[in-house]
Amino acid sequence: MSNSIPSVRILPTETNAPGLRPGAEEKPGFVDALENAISAVEKLQGQADSKVSQLLAGNGTDVHSAMIAVEKADLSFQLMMQVRNKIVQAYRDIANMQF
Predict the structure, then answer these.
(1) How would you write 15-66 as a 3-class SS string?
(2) Is the pLDDT of residue 12 over 60?
(3) Which helix (DSSP H) or strand (DSSP E) does residue 86 occupy?
(4) Residue 90: CB partners within 8 Å, gap ≥ 6?
(5) Where in the chain are the domains?
(6) Average pLDDT score over residue span 69-98
(7) What is the pLDDT at residue 15?
(8) CA atoms within 13 A on the CB side of 49
(9) What confidence category does residue 71 fall into, taking pLDDT thresholds of 50, 70 and 90?
(10) With bands split at pLDDT 50, 70 and 90, how would you rate the model's confidence at 60?
């Protein structure tokens, strides 16, 4: 009687890892979330630029809506910069760890 262990091959199509299985959908990751946040900030900045341009051209945009758009863009940019600062600080903390 032999005590041999049967060999089992695991092929990439049998794994549950995303990207290895054909047709497997990947969940949005951290980079995707950052890209979405940056594009949202860019969109708000574009809207603010448009409102200010319309105001200066005299196309019926009132001062209040232009100022609200500018403040939204400013606040979202400040938030994005704070998130960036936290990410950079976390990277520095990890880089300074001793193993």
Answers:
(1) CCCCCCCCCCCCCCCHHHHHHHHHHHHHHHHHHHHHHHHHHHHCCCCCHHHH
(2) no
(3) helix 63-95
(4) none
(5) 27-95
(6) 95
(7) 47
(8) 6
(9) very high
(10) confident
The type of residue at 12 is: P
Q: Is the dihedral of CA 49, 51, 55, 59 positive or negative?
A: positive
How far from 27 is each of 13, 24, 31, 40, 74, CA to CA, in Å?
A: 18, 10, 11, 20, 30
Helix (H) or strand (E) holding 99: none
